[in-house]
Design goal:
Elements: H1 12-47, H2 54-85, H3 88-108, H4 112-115, H5 118-146, H6 154-179, H7 184-191, H8 193-211, H9 217-224, H10 232-239, H11 241-272, H12 277-305, H13 307-329, H14 334-348, H15 350-361, H16 366-384, H17 387-398, H18 404-422
Helix pairs in contact: 1-2, 1-3, 1-5, 1-6, 1-8, 1-11, 2-3, 2-5, 2-16, 2-17, 3-5, 3-8, 5-6, 5-16, 6-12, 6-15, 10-16, 11-12, 11-15, 11-16, 11-17, 11-18, 12-13, 12-14, 12-15, 13-14, 13-15, 13-18
InterPro entries: MFS, MFS_dom, MFS_sugar_transport-like, MFS_trans_sf, Sugar_transporter_CS
Keywords: Cell membrane, Membrane, Transmembrane, Transmembrane helix, Transport
Transmembrane segments: 30-49, 55-79, 91-111, 117-144, 156-178, 190-209, 243-266, 278-298, 310-328, 334-360, 372-394, 406-428
Length: 431
């Protein structure tokens, strides 16, 4: 079921506005999302899950982080249906509003000492709302860029929403880093809440920017010709389930190492290796800044050498770098910490994530593209992303602090993704 490839070309000015809208909205959504992830590693175990065993408190905190990944597919089901039936733009307004509202409420939520068991319960509820929002956001932001892109720039345009992931992470890390300069008691009492509350400003800005963008040319053409799926989820699972499985497998090596390099490292380096919290956050910030620069470069390069070739090369390098990564960390110096984090996130992970969205988009036709890429992305994230910090912490504890099982876990995700990419087939030639 394919659409015509004769979609009208957008002007350069329109393309620029689309990329800004896609990037801004994606950055804000991921800022909210990673703000929680970073704070979960440093604060939530103490504020919402106080226990006599700090490892248990940390794992409970990571559990709330992981639960969201399993609600993200539900958000994907709901909003991809809207996106494939009604449009990409309208869906993005809803997802950004959900995400922003939940984030602000987390910043206002009393801790365990104030309201007891209701504190972790409400935290989980708000985190699940965040998961619903982000579940539909990624696909819409990606398609806003991809379906406006010129045919020889699909890789570049498809990489721009991926920059939102790292920009959002930089903003979240910087926000927590600034607030971490407060004394520990003030940081735990109120300092961590400030970035959550200030995110409301970013949400209003994102909604204003997206308001001025029209629906994508590909979707308008599909809707005008009546080539819109009645029940996108059913059609996707019935006719495109193999492509969904391929997308899920491809997602493994992009998501699990990312959360090891960016989230798990915060608690591992501070609690096990003895680094200062700000030192670790600074290393992650430096690495993420480099990643943000590298993603569009890799995306543009993929327009010349091919998406699959770049993804396969990046995956092999990821598997090869895993053991050196932990060996560098074990040196327990600031220099080795920065090198490990910068190489892992900035150089090894960047080409993988840069082409991920475009790879996904090219294996689904327009009528089910929102649903297909969202299912693949969110199910893959649930299986390999949300569980990564939790599983890594469990492995570290089970094997008496040894990082070797964690390294083999990352290698395993690379193998799964290599199997997936071997079966990837372009069924929609940039339609």
């Amino acid at each position: 079921m394919r659409t015509s490839s004769t979609e009208p070309a957008a002007s350069a000015a329109t393309n620029k506005r689309v990329l800004i809208a896609s990037l801004m909205g994606s950055s804000i959504e991921w800022f909210d999302y990673f703000l929680y992830a970073t704070t979960a590693a440093l604060v939530f175990g103490k504020v919402f899950f106080p226990t006599t065993d700090p490892v248990v408190g940390l794992m409970l905190s990571y559990l709330t982080f992981s639960l969201t990944f399993f609600i993200r597919p539900l958000g994907g089901f709901i909003f991809s249906h809207i996106g494939d039936r009604i449009g990409r733009k309208k869906t993005l307004v809803i997802t950004l509003s959900l995400m922003g509202g939940a984030t602000v409420l987390i910043g206002l939520l009393p801790g365990y000492e104030q309201i007891g068991i209701w504190a972790p319960i409400l935290l989980i509820v708000l985190r699940l709302v965040q998961g619903l929002g982000i579940g539909g956001e990624w696909g819409g932001a990606l398609l806003l860029a991809y379906e406006y892109a010129p045919k020889n720039r699909k890789g570049l345009f498809g990489s721009v929403p991926q920059m939102g992931v790292t920009i959002g992470m930089v903003l979240a890390t910087l926000a927590i880093t600034v607030m971490s300069t407060l004394p520990d008691d003030q940081f735990l009492a109120w300092g961590w809440r400030v970035p959550f509350l200030l995110s409301a400003i970013l949400v209003f800005l994102g909604l204003w920017i997206r308001k001025g963008i029209d629906e994508t040319p590909a979707f308008k053409q599909a809707k005008a010709s009546g080539n819109v799926a009645k029940i996108p989820l059913v059609e996707t699972l019935r006719y495109h389930w193999r492509a969904v499985l391929v997308a899920v497998a491809i997602k493994f090596v992009e998501t699990a190492p990312f959360y090891i390099f960016s989230t798990f490292i915060v608690s591992y380096a501070t609690a096990t290796l003895g680094f200062e919290r700000i030192s670790v956050l600074n290393a992650v910030t430096i690495a993420t800044l480099l990643t943000t620069v590298m993603i569009p470069i890799m995306g543009r390069l993929s327009d010349s050498i091919g998406r699959k070739r770049m993804f396969i090369a990046g995956t092999f390098v990821m598997a090869a770098f895993t053991f050196p990564y932990f060996m560098l960390l074990e040196q327990r110096t600031m220099t080795s910490l920065v090198i490990a984090t910068v190489v892992g996130l900035g150089l090894v992970w960047a080409p993988i994530t840069a082409v991920l969205g475009t790879l996904f988009s090219e294996i689904f036709s327009t009528r089910v593209r929102y649903t297909g890429i969202t299912l693949g992305y969110q199910i893959g994230a649930a299986l390999a992303g949300g569980t990564a910090p939790l599983l890594a912490t469990w492995l570290l504890n089970k094997y008496n602090g040894s990082w070797v099982p964690v390294a083999w876990y990352i290698v395993g995700t690379a193998v799964i993704s290599l199997i997936g990419i071997a079966f990837a087939k372009t069924v929609a030639d940039n339609d």
